[in-house]
Design goal:
The complex is a heterodimer. By secondary structure, chain A is α/β, with parallel strands linked by helices. Chain A contains 28 helices and 24 strands. Chain B is mainly α. The chains are: A alpha/beta, B mainly alpha. The complex binds adenosine-5'-triphosphate, iron/sulfur cluster (2 copies) and magnesium ion.
């Protein structure tokens, strides 16, 4: 465990020379059609020695492109202008031979694409050795020894043996560590960590951040952290740069940007993130619309179409990045002074929608009808081997005895690492057939009693699903109207009714009736997900199963979809089973939460109680791993970082399945440990509607309270 | 890896047996050696016909399975049967095999190298002149029958010879029978005769492989690990050969057998056109001559060769790809 504050370097002296100076960087990609994609338009910043800078922005805002320009790794046809000086040396226009000597030695980049970033045909050891030997004349033996040291440093167990393994024998998290080992092999001055928008698993992410901090401490390198997640940089960065449509729009110390944002986009971004420390179910700040196309930028401020503060001049002149009142804090907005003077906060700039509540929610939980009840659900897959003659070599216990129920108008969040059995549980429910063991009841009907397709079809009306990837789940050849009509036709609605319903549905999810004739690819990601939701609602279901419905969406768009889901629930008295790996989204949308680990539920209960006093060590670790977009809190937070990866569900540990990674287990006496090894712990009550499956369960608060003082500061 | 290869080898032996048997049965059923007696003057009596045909185990009056059994029995004893003129198929085969072997071996190796090299280079020069011309060239060769290519090459060689005023490149037969001189002048003469047939086979083999290698390489060029290699500080060329090409070889080696088969078919035409007395020429002759045993032998050898190529391919892929070797 490390607190973020320990490894945070001091704010460097202002007179210290900068290691990296970016000045008016422009990057343009010519495209086949002759139009130009202006990916970066005038980026300037300085990075001091040992400093950590966070670059934040949505997908396509130019974060990666600007760093690739620094590394000299953009395609040869790219037009780059401006200046990038590393330790006084100009990088732009440098010959590849010279640039190769700097790359990996003075400036390194960690690409966070865990699965594909290592060459499949060489051992990981050989790849680290290669990184060392390009820049030094270490002998092979010395380099190998050093590679093993580096692998050890980044936390690869048994580094000597594991160095001989090939990438495909490593898990994603381990490959990521190898990437870091290569990047720090030559003690670089600047380390760029580029995080993909498709999030890693919470745990792996936390592990990687920890390794990154170790790396930073060891090398003393200045770090550029590129991410779309304002939470990640809050505790790690000294300064933050926000990018929008290829431009820097706000730059300041972390405290300035988080506590006193002066540019509406930053404000919206901060308000749109679901927060772990939110107090109960709450609406998020939606930023309407979507980012502009870089090939066809509007004149004036690129954020204008989405900005609630826009005035006339915004359409004419693009605001430069300028200091707010002579401070180091800079923002690109025509109204930054006004924002400063009036002390406008997020809530003042962006109207937060009111969330209603469904009539049924006024009843106490026990009196509401049960929408879905799952008891002792089991799904085991046989594990087969062999090409021609398959033989069973084991059993994958994907779901192994899961119980929960959802009442009408209620949302249950089902969370856990990938591979823990969330999706299997959900698919079992959707199939509406008799499970291998246990029972599933939808709207009071037991799936064991559905004897024919007809009965199943009737019940299917009550149960609908929204998938993660809106792109993949909509047929690109069907106009949206047909997509929506399809389920209704199957269920024998008549033509007139269908047409009316399509209009109604589009309106319900915030699209226009005129959109019915368009094809899915003409919509943005957020709009496509709205179509997916509309389709699920077509048959007026009672229960909607949502499989990671917002994890493929950009931050600012995500908020709108979450709000929509909350509104629909209130208006239509829906019940949701919300499957997600993101605990902060669950925090704002769910009433109850169930945490799964290796096919079983380890903790379940009302959200307020589980988040405030998580009692299972796994829940505690998960919650502590999620960053909060609040620098003060992040700096002082204790992180519980789980060791290792999820064990194989084909061979789960005896007794408590979590014991191989349990931080609590390590603190127990030998006698106490024996119980964990011998017996699987039953769910024991920890409060009214809150229970945990741990022999030694005890509540530990891992999320800092929303502090009074901060609240006051934010509203000034 | 050893176990994996042994398993494959057993598979291949079984396959060779099946392929050869099928080839024999097909030849036995569809060819008609009795045609040799037709139109003879004076006509050969049917009993004499039968005696001769039976002696060679090609009598259509014997049930085909009996003939097959007989043939197999001989085969086990190393006897491939006799052809219609009374010659031994085995002797013929062993002579011609070396003639074709030369062509095939050199053609395959060169075709493989040129195909992989050109494919990789075209990919690196994606959408530039070199890429367009190589790709167009490959499509041209693929769409052209082999004999057209051979003839085009001959025409070119004739022009060249005329231009320089003496015979620089020879293209009929395997060697010049009238040549006097020592070992080296004979060797030179042999090589000279090899040039055009080899180029023909090389082009035929390389074209398909090149297109495939180009596609594989293009896939790999945009990959994250090539970018990682560059980010480590590897020069472009090193990253391209050590990381990109090395990995892109794996998918294109899986069509090695296929490209070998095209070379083999190409060899049939090439031998006929360039007057080489090899397997290809023999294949055509045996079919025309209704020589059942000969056809069966040629097909059997082809099957063995193709399966050797497949086995080689398995070994190469296993060596190249740790995922096959380790996992
Ligand atoms: N090689 C390229 N050719 C053409 N356009 C490109 C190229 N690389 C990037 N772009 C475009 O440049 C813009 C900025 O891309 P960039 O990768 O920097 O985004 P990002 O901020 O890193 O996003 P993400 O969060 O998704 O990683 C995008 O519109 C992208 O499509
Ligand atoms: S310049 Fe205008 S449109 Fe742009 S952010 Fe500021 S107020 Fe909004
Ligand atoms: S039962 Fe034991 S091993 Fe399992 S979570 Fe509790 S303390 Fe950890
Ligand atoms: Mg990026």
């Amino acid at each position: 465990m490390t607190t973020a504050a320990e490894v945070r370097t001091r704010e460097p002296q202002p007179d210290e020379s900068a290691i990296l100076v970016v000045d008016d960087l422009h990057v343009t990609f010519p495209t086949l059609g002759g139009t130009k994609v202006r990916a970066v338009r005038g980026l300037s910043y300085q990075l001091r020695r040992g400093e950590a800078l966070g670059i934040v922005g949505e997908s396509g805002s130019g974060k990666s492109v600007s760093s690739l320009a620094m590394m000299g790794l953009l395609p040869r046809t790219t037009q780059i202008s401006g200046s990038i000086r590393l330790d006084g040396k100009e990088l732009i226009g440098m010959h590849d031979r010279e640039a190769s000597e700097l790359r990996g030695k003075k400036i390194s980049m960690i690409f966070q694409e865990p699965l594909s970033a290592l060459t499949p045909v060489y051992t990981v050891g050989a790849q680290v050795v290669e990184a060392l030997r390009v820049h030094t004349d270490l002998s092979k033996e010395r380099a190998q020894a050093r590679a093993v040291e580096l692998l050890d440093l980044v936390g690869i167990p048994n580094p000597r043996e594991r160095a001989k393994a090939f990438p495909h024998e490593f898990s994603g998290g381990m490959r990521q560590r190898v990437m870091i080992a290569m990047a720090i092999a030559n003690d670089p001055d600047v380390l760029i960590a580029d995080e993909q928008s498709t999030a890693l698993d919470v745990n792996i992410h936390a592990q990687i951040l920890e390794v990154l901090q170790t790396a930073r401490r060891e090398t003393g390198a200045a770090v550029i952290m590129i991410t779309h997640d304002l939470g990640v940089v809050a505790g790690l960065a000294d300064r933050v740069l926000v990018m929008y449509a290829g431009r820097p729009v706000e730059l300041g110390t972390t405290d300035e940007v988080y506590y006193a944002p002066r540019m509406p986009y930053t404000m919206g971004l901060l308000g749109s993130i679901p927060r772990l420390d939110a107090s109960g179910r709450s609406a998020l700040v939606p930023i309407e619309g979507s980012p502009p196309s870089l090939a066809n930028l509007p004149s004036g401020c690129p954020f204008r179409p989405r900005c609630p503060l826009a005035i006339d001049i915004c359409a004419e002149e693009e605001p430069p990045l300028e200091s707010v009142r002579g401070a180091s804090h800079r923002a690109a907005c025509h109204r930054k002074e006004e924002i400063e003077t009036n002390g406008w906060s997020v809530g003042d700039v962006f109207p937060v929608p009111e969330l209603g509540i469904a009539p049924v929610e006024r009843l106490p939980r026990e009196q509401r009808p049960v929408a879905l009840a799952v008891e002792g659900l089991v799904k085991h897959y046989p594990l087969m081997k062999g090409v021609v003659f398959k033989r069973r070599v084991g059993t994958v216990q994907a779901v192994d005895g899961v119980d929960f129920d959802i009442r009408e108008g209620e949302t249950l969040g089902l969370v856990g690492e990938s591979g823990c059995g969330k999706t299997t549980t959900l698919l079992q429910i959707l199939e509406l057939v008799k499970p291998q063991a246990g029972t599933i009841q939808v709207a009071g009907k037991d799936t064991n009693d559905l004897h024919n397709a007809h009965a199943r079809k009737a019940l299917r009306r009550d149960l609908q699903v929204v998938f993660q990837d809106p792109q993949a789940s909509l047929d690109p050849r069907l106009p949206v109207g047909d997509v929506l009509a399809e389920p209704m036709r199957t269920h024998g609605y008549d033509r007139k009714h269908i047409d009316a319903r399509i209009k109604e549905l589009l309106g319900l999810v915030g699209l226009e009736a005129g959109h019915a004739g368009r094809y899915p690819q003409e919509f943005s990601g957020g709009q496509r997900q709205r179509v997916g939701i509309a389709r699920a609602l077509a048959l007026e279901p009672k229960l909607v199963v949502l499989d990671e419905p917002v994890s493929a969406l950009d931050v600012s768009i995500r908020a709108g979809v979450i709000n929509l889901l909350m509104q629909l629930r209130a208006e239509l008295s829906l019940s949701y089973l919300f499957v997600a790996h993101d605990l902060s989204v669950v925090r704002v949308i769910a009433d109850r939460v169930a945490v799964m680990y290796l096919g079983r539920i380890v903790e379940i209960g009302v959200v307020d109680s589980v988040y405030a006093s998580p009692s299972h060590p796994y829940t505690q670790a998960l919650l502590s791993a999620i960053p909060i977009p609040d620098p003060d809190k992040e700096r002082t937070r204790e992180r519980i970082v789980l060791q290792g990866d999820l064990p194989s569900p084909a061979d789960p540990p005896s007794g408590c399945r979590f014991r191989t990674r349990c931080q609590r287990f390590l603190t127990l006496t030998e006698g106490e440990k024996q119980l964990c090894i011998d017996r699987y712990p039953p769910l024991i009550p920890m409060g009214p509607d809150h229970s945990a499956a741990c022999h030694y369960a005890e509540p530990v608060a891992v999320i800092p309270e929303q502090s009074k003082e901060r609240k006051r500061r934010r509203s000034t | 890896m050893g176990k994996y290869l042994v398993r494959r080898l057993i598979n291949y032996v079984v396959l060779v047996f099946i392929a050869t048997s099928l080839a024999y049965l097909l030849a036995a059923v569809s060819l008609n050696p009795r045609e040799h007696f037709q139109g003879r003057n004076p006509p050969v009596p049917v009993t004499t016909q039968d005696r001769i045909l039976s002696a060679y185990n090609i009598n259509d009056k014997t049930p085909v399975l009996d003939r097959y059994g007989h043939w197999l029995d001989d085969l086990v004893h190393g006897n491939l049967g006799r052809d219609f003129d009374g010659g031994y198929v085995g002797a013929n085969l062993s002579r011609r095999m070396w003639v074709s072997g030369q062509l095939l071996l050199i053609g395959t190796i060169l075709g493989g190298l040129v195909g992989v090299g050109a494919g990789a280079w075209a990919a690196v020069r994606h959408k530039r002149v070199a890429d367009y011309s190589l790709t167009q060239g490959a499509f041209f060769i693929l769409s052209c029958p082999t004999f057209v290519i051979a003839i085009l090459l001959q025409v070119g060689a004739t022009r060249l010879n005329d231009a320089v005023g003496h015979r620089l490149i020879s293209f009929s037969g395997q060697s010049d029978p009238a040549l006097q001189g020592g070992f080296f002048s004979h060797l030179g003469d042999r090589l000279d005769h090899l040039i055009l047939p080899t180029i023909t086979l090389m082009l035929v083999g390389a074209a398909g492989l090149m297109l495939y290698q180009r596609a594989a390489m293009l896939d790999v060029l945009g990959s994250d690990y090539v970018r990682t290699a560059r980010a480590k500080g590897l020069r472009r060329r090193t990253a391209l050969t050590k990381h990109a090409l090395r990995t892109a070889l794996i998918p294109s080696m899986t069509i090695f057998t296929f490209s070998f088969a095209t070379i083999f078919v190409g060899a049939i035409f090439t031998e006929v056109i360039f007057g080489w007395h090899g397997m290809g020429e023999w294949f055509v002759q045996t079919i025309q001559g209704n020589d059942t045993n000969g056809v069966a032998a040629v097909t059997a050898v082809t099957a063995v060769l193709i399966l050797i190529a497949s086995f080689l391919q398995d070994i190469i892929v296993a060596l190249l790809d740790p995922r096959v070797r380790v996992g």
